[in-house]
Amino acid sequence: MQQPAHPSAQSIPEEPYAVAATASTARPRRTLKHGDTFILVDSHGDIGVIPDGSDGLFHTDTRFLSLFALTLDGTQPLLLGSNVYDDNSMLTVDMTNPDIWRSGRLALPKDTVHLVRSLFLWRGTAHSRLAVGNYGDHPVEINLRFAFDGDFADLFEVRGTPRARRGVVKRSVIEPARVLLSYLGLDGRLRRTALFFDPEPSVLQAKSASYRFTLAPREVRRLYQFASCDDESMPKPRPFLRGLRAARRDLRQATRNATTVETGNDIFNEVLCRSMSDLCMLITDTPQGPYPYAGIPWYSTTFGRDGLITAMQMLAFRPQFARGVLRRLAAYQARKDDPVNDAQPGKILHEMRSGEMAALREVPFGLYYGSVDSTPLFVMLAGLYAERTGDDATIVELWPAIEAALAWIDGPADADGDGFVEYYRATEQGLANQGWKDSFDAIFHADGKLAEGPIALAEVQGYVYAAKRLAARCARRMGREERARALESAAARLADAFEAAFWCPDLGTYALALDGAKRPCRVRSSNAGQVLFTGICAPERAAEIAHDLMRPHFFTGWGIRTIAEGEARYNPMSYHNGSIWPHDNALIALGLARYGLKRAVEQVFQGLFDTAAYMDLRRLPELFCGFVRRRGRGPTLYPVACAPQAWASATPFTLIEAALGLEFDTGAREIRLRNPRLPPFLGHLILRNLQLRDASVDLIVRRHGDEVSMELLRTSGKIQVSALFSR
């Protein structure tokens, strides 16, 4: 993800696509998404009340509504409450009137009128209902006004990237209840927002709709508003309740036949419910299958790295996600050199965009491949998916893409032939850093000097190692024994070379990276924790790294920082140099579990659970600040973090996998729990419908101090479950 910028950093030339953190956050934000459409509103359900904010109705990387604000007698109603349904299907906002004076007298005492806004998205249309009820004992005159507009700003404009020129916006009333907003972009494409009001407003203008009516005591009147994006035919929208039922059906479909988790901790159950609801909202149907869009508002599109890691995190519980991710990324795998897009044959996509600026190449992200890790992660996920599901038919389908990815790893990605995968941007328009820590200042030496490329990141070498070992096992199952042996030999050579080049004995950890001169960036970073996840390091190294990661310079009580306190560029308020990312901690937890370091897993699990308990909606954000935990205080938020974010939403499930040590053996039809443990906040945990091939099981794990017991509650089909303990 490109670094969101603080105001003081907006002029830094290295960050041309940064997110400006300038808008007021006085009103909390609420988000909804369906397909390629998402909406960001404030707690009142309004858009655009705060100037220069990021609110809006967005569709395919364009803001189709930049203003949609309700007033009662020219004033904003008083907020009573604002809630998103647990399943993310709808937002409801309860409001009432302030004291309203007309002609020098109190015409409407406060708390007389109850206003309820209900909002949901379905198939490119925002459906909104306003219910207005009179709780007074006499009739009241109601004057309502909806102000609206569409600036059709590209998402990168909203994020803060300036533009010298724009297209032309037109606004017209086309029927007594319809307004059309249209924008002819510089890319020649016509984008349109159709607004429909039911019943017809008393007065409809090109930028406002007004209603005037009288409400009898206890009477309730309902007004409906619809905003459709890019619908050329502009049919009358589906009735509100029918559309809501359809939207909820779509959400239920995403959870059908899923593994569910229940625990004895009500707060953690809320965290899990929110996480799964957010994942289901972010999952988007594509021609290749379901794909988890990365996050709202800035990353609601296909991101290679994010989709791959989210699918890995959810393999134990929702392996179907991985198949959709793999097939979609294989379909968009680069097939030719294109320096502007950092594309080379075999490379896996970093990001795709469909807005005006991408079409005009004002930003390079139409189909952009500037990610060094997406390609090995693609191969890695394919192997993990095969081992989790036994779906060899999909691996056969994907094998040409897997081989093309491996060819890129051994070819263009290792231009100097030293055995390490390195990155550099082909043009100044591309991203300077192309690992998951892609801020301009994320890769640096001990003295703070920025590393110059080509750069070899520590965790990426681990991804390549794991990818080749997993691809070898796939090749062997396909009867390609010679290819399997070659991949295993290559992985072993990489492990030896990695140890020699990256290990820093005086630091007790692996270097963050090697720069273009092969000098190690001797910086303590969380990247070393992700190295554990890949299995490339020896067990004795793992114990040393884990000990360092759990010391106070890394572990704050909430989680593990990206960069240790005391390093030259450490800043707990930065995007990548001292903040805490839940998904980073989740992958580290899987690495700790891999080496049997379960007490450290418990600490990470506990910290992130406590973090989620403090968060709005029990929702883990993309990241938060890396300040040390203080008694009686919650974690410090990062100002422009995405929430929801797919890999953050997947984190609670990944932590469960790490704590239980879940393993799946499709050949033996066996699920194993290796050294299972539960953190102190969980007395028991129930997994229902945990699947392996065509069989499934329900089981409960109970904590007894430092020990656990396991009991099978139900089995269906041929399946075994075992718990393995080692001392």
Structure description:
- The protein is α+β, with helices and mostly antiparallel strands and about 725 residues long.
- It has 16 helices and 35 strands.
Describe the structure using short key phrases.
727 residues; 26% strand; globular; four-stranded antiparallel β-sheet; alpha+beta; eight-stranded antiparallel β-sheet
Q: What is this entry, summarized?
A:
28% of the residues lie in helices and 26% in strands. The chain has 727 residues and is α+β, with helices and mostly antiparallel strands. Helix 4 (304-313) runs parallel beside helix 7 (374-389) and helix 9 runs antiparallel to helix 10.
| Strand ordering within the main sheet | 8-9-12-13-20-17-16-15
- In DSSP terms (H or I, runs of 4 or more residues), the helix count works out at 16
Structural shape: globular
**C-alpha-based Rg, rounded:** 27 Å
Largest sheet: 8 strands, antiparallel
Which ranges are low-confidence, i.e. pLDDT below 50, for 5 or more consecutive residues? Answer: 4-14
* Total count of strands: 35
Bin the helical content. Answer: 25-40%
Mean pLDDT: 94
Pairing-aware structural class of the strands and helices? alpha+beta
- First and last CA, distance: 40 Å
Q: How much beta, percentage-wise?
A: 25-35%
Task: Produce the secondary structure layout.
Blueprint: E1 4-5, E2 19-20, E3 29-34, E4 37-42, E5 56-59, E6 62-65, E7 67-72, E8 78-84, E9 91-96, E10 100-102, E11 105-108, E12 113-122, E13 125-134, E14 140-149, H1 155-159, E15 168-175, E16 178-184, E17 190-198, E18 203-205, E19 208-215, E20 220-229, H2 240-255, E21 260-263, H3 266-282, E22 283-286, E23 289-292, H4 304-313, H5 320-331, E24 351-352, H6 356-359, E25 367-368, H7 374-389, H8 392-410, E26 456-457, H9 458-477, H10 481-502, E27 503-504, E28 509-510, E29 513-514, H11 527-534, H12 539-549, H13 582-594, H14 598-614, H15 646-649, H16 651-660, E30 662-665, E31 670-674, E32 684-692, E33 695-704, E34 707-716, E35 720-724
Parallel strand pairs: 1-2, 31-35
Antiparallel strand pairs: 3-4, 4-5, 5-6, 7-14, 8-9, 9-12, 10-11, 12-13, 13-20, 14-19, 15-16, 16-17, 17-20, 18-19, 21-32, 22-23, 24-25, 26-29, 27-28, 30-31, 32-33, 33-34
